[in-house]
Amino acid sequence: MAVLSPASFVTKGPSSSSSSSSPFPARASFLRAQSISGSEQTNLRSSSASKSMSEFKLKVAKNSTGMTKERESDDTATLTSKNLFDDLKERFLSFKKHTYLENIEHYESLAKGQAPKFMVIACGDSRVCPSNILGFQPGEAFVVRNVANLVPHFESGPSETKAALEFAVNVLKVQNILVVGHSRCGGIRALMSMHDDVETSSFIGSWVSVGMNARKRTKADASNLNFDQQCRHCEKESVSCTLTNLLTYPWIEEKAKGGELSIHGGYYDFVDCTFERWTLDYKEDGEVSVKDRSFWC
C-alpha cells in the first residue's frame, strides 16, 4: 500500500475550488479502501462463523439423533424386560392361587423339611426339565442340572455336583439316583468335537472332558456312523459312563451293594417324545449289568 506524505494533507487556502468534493481526496480514497477492505473481512468472518455454526448444528443434530436412537433402544430393552417379568409375575400368582393355596397342607408340610425319593441328574438344556417331562411334584425329587448331565469320577476333586450327591445320598437318604440324558445335547456335541490328546482351557471343554471315556467308546463302536449319529450314540453312552462313575463314590457303592440305593439311567428324545429307562444291577462281587430296560412312547 502507498505511503501518504504530509504534503497531501496541506490546503491551498481560499483559492481552492468550492466544489462539494472532499477537501482531502487522497485521504478519502484511503478511508474508502479501508472501509471496503474491513467490510470484506467482516463479511468473510461472518461467512466463516456461519459455516462453523452450521457444521456445529449438524454435528449436534447427528449426536442428538444417535442419543435418541440409543435411548429408544434402552427403552425397548427395558420394556421387553418389564414385559418378561410381568409374565413371570402372572405365572407366579397363578401358581399361588391354583396350586399352592389349593394344596396348602402339602406345602406347609414341605416347609418343615424334605424327604425326596429321587435324586435326578439332568442337563441344563432349557428343553429338558425333569419336573415337566416326568411329572415330579415339589418334594419328590432333589434335582441337579449341569452341562451334559455328567458326574465326575470320585477322585477328580471337588465340584458342586459332588456336593449335591453327598447331600442327597447321605443327608436326604434318597432311594434312587436317576441320570437323564437327552437328544441333540450341545454338551455332548462339544465333547465329540474334541480331540483325544488336546487339552482345553475353556470352562465348557474342561467340564465335558469328564465324559471322555464315552467319546472314546463311541469312536470305537460307532466309527461307521456319521457325526450326528455318533453324537446320538454318545448321548446314551455318556449316561452309562456316568452311572459307572457314581459307583466310584464309596458311600454310593456301599448303599447300592446293600440294596438301599438304586441307580438308573434314562434317555429323553424330545424330537419324537420318547423315553428310555434302565437300571444298574450291582452284584455283591462287584459285577455290574443292566436290568429292567424299558421304552416309553
Automatic annotation (TrEMBL):
SUPFAM superfamilies: beta-carbonic anhydrase, cab (SSF53056)
Assigned keywords, A-Z: Lyase, Metal-binding, S-nitrosylation, Zinc
Natural source organism: Linum trigynum
Protein known as: Carbonic anhydrase
GO MF: carbonate dehydratase activity; zinc ion binding
Cofactor-binding details, from the entry: Binds 1 zinc ion per subunit.
Segments of this protein annotated with the region Disordered: 1-25
Keyword Membrane recorded: no
Record-listed E.C. numbers: 4.2.1.1
Residues that bind Zn(2+): 123, 125, 182, 185
Isomerase found in the keyword field: no
GO biological process, one term: carbon utilization
CDD domains: beta_CA_cladeB (cd00884)
Role played: Reversible hydration of carbon dioxide.
Family of the protein in this entry: Belongs to the beta-class carbonic anhydrase family.
Cofactor: Zn(2+)
Chemical reaction(s) catalysed: hydrogencarbonate + H(+) = CO2 + H2O
InterPro entries from the UniProt entry: Beta_CA_cladeB, Carbonic_anhydrase, Carbonic_anhydrase_CS, Carbonic_anhydrase_sf
